[in-house]
Amino acid sequence: MSNRDKKTEILKITGYASGLFTLFIAVIMIVGYIQLERIRPLENPSLDALREIYDRDYNNEDIKEQIRALDLMTRKAFFTARWQIETGTYLLIAGVVVFIICQRLLNNKRRIPGEINGSEENLLTSKRKTRSYLLISSGIVIIAAFVVSFQLRIKLPDPSRVIDDTGVQGESNIAHLRTDEISVSSGITEIPSEKPVDIPDKPEAKQSQDISETKSTEQAISATEEKHSENNYTAADMPVDDNNGVNYPFFRGTGSRSIVEENGYPVSWDGNSGDGIKWKIKVNSHGYSSPVIWDDKLFLTGEKGGSLEIMCYNKNNGELLWTSSASGISGEPDTPPQTSEDTGLAAPTAATNGKVVCAIFATGNLVCVDMNGNRLWAKNLGVPDNHYGHSSSLVIYGNKLLVQYDERNKKSLKAFDLNTGEIIWETIRPVAISWASPVIARFDGKDQVILTSDPYVISYDINNGEELWSVQCMSGEVGPSVGVNSKYVFAVNEFAVLAAIKPGTDASVVWQDNEYTPEVSSPVATEELVFVLTSWGAAACYDTETGELVWDHDFDYGFYSSPVIAGDNVYMLDQAGVMHVVKAGREFSQLAESPLGERAVCTPAFSEGSVYIRTEEHLFCIE
Question: pTM for the whole thing?
Answer without folding.
Answer: 0.67
